[in-house]
Amino acid sequence: MLDLTLRIKRFTLKEKHRLEKPVKYTVRNYKKGDEMHIARIYSECFGPATPRRLKKWHRLHGTLPEHVFIGVVDGKPVSSVEFVFKQLHLGEGVYLKTGGISGVCTDSDYRHKGIVTSLMKAGLNYTENSGASNSSLYTGLNIPAHRIYSRFGFVDIMTRRTYIKYFDYPFVFARWIRMLNRQLKDSKIATRKLQGWQKSVIIELKEVGPLAFRFRKGRFQKLKKPPKKPDIVLSTDIQTFTHIIREGVMDWEQAAKTKRLAWKQGETADIEMLKRILRWMWDE
Predict the structure, then answer these.
(1) Taking the model in full, what pTM does it have?
(2) d(CA 127, CA 81)
(3) CA 230 to chain CA centroid, nearest Å
């Protein structure tokens, strides 16, 4: 009898990217008409954006065409990095010219192709040749783009934190649900990942009690009352929950280790999906 053994290889993320067909792209500066494409890319990465708002931003910060670097595939802009020249205040009347980086974003269909790396390289060379002694950027914590920034030698020099007091957190929660739907509208990755996922979630906040939402028919819905049979139940406090959903200031392992967060109910796959939703991070 012939004995056949099925062997399955689980490819690492790096191996998957290596197997993908390479993309031919070019790097150039911004030109009139690109704002339509850039606004679409921004909407997927940062939330709803329009060409009008993009032009307003450029006028406000004095952005010139040579300050914006575009990655182009088959004649279509698919990636963008912008350099905003400012005076970096070091205190006591001391300023340094900096090439501030903003709008680092790539269409989800063209990520992991090295396009942003090429744009960053071109932009940093331009910044240095323009007389700036440094380049700076403000970014969320624990996001995939940190790998790119670290390779280029960026270091963390955070010196301050933001504090906020909530008077009506259920209202804030409702606005957050609304924001999720706006982000979902422009996120191709999130739409694909959430397809077929229909679950209800209760978040038990120590200060205000349970707040609930569900994802059904392609939309997030805030629930007036917690469902009797939820799929997921999470217990935490407002500070921890806010840290998690705002730029990933705190990660799950840290929150669970310090017992500031606990899962009371939920299948492993559903919990992993909820983690993606709360932090809105869909890249592998």
Answers:
(1) 0.78
(2) 12
(3) 28
Residue 145 sits in a domain whose CATH number is 3.40.630.30
- Please identify, among 124, 151, 178, the residue that sits at the C-terminal boundary of a domain: 151
How far, in whole angstroms, is CA 160 from its chain's centroid? Answer: 21
**d(Cα 16, Cα 78) in Å, to the nearest integer?**
21
Task: Give just the sign of the alpha carbon dihedral 119, 46, 97, 249.
Answer: negative
Please indicate, yes or no, whether residues 21 and 144 belong to a single structural domain of this protein.
yes
As a whole number of angstroms, the distance between CA 78 and CA 37 comes to: 7
| Rounded distance between C-alpha atoms, residue 91 and residue 96, angstroms | 10
pLDDT in tens, 153-206: 888 877 677 788 899 999 999 999 999 999 999 999 999 999 999 999 999 999
Closest of 263, 258, 181 to residue 222, by C-alpha: 181
Which residues are CB-contacts of 186 (< 8 A; sequence separation ≥ 6)?
Answer: 40, 43, 44, 47, 48
Query: CA 62 → CA 59, 83, 85, 86, distances in Å?
Result: 5, 11, 8, 10
Token pair of 35 as six digits: 């704002």
Single out the residue of 136, 101, 141, 137 nearest to residue 246, CA to CA. 141
Residue 250 vs residues 169, 244, 257, 261: alpha-carbon distances, Å: 19, 5, 11, 11
Q: What is the tens place of the pLDDT at every residue in 255-284?
A: 888 899 999 999 999 999 999 999 888 875
Ramachandran sector of residue 181 (left: φ over 0; alpha: ψ -120 to 50; beta: rest): alpha
| Domain encompassing residue 215 | 169-279
Q: Rounded to whole angstroms, how far apart are CA atoms 30 and 33?
A: 9
Residue 76 φ/ψ, nearest 5 degrees? -115, 125
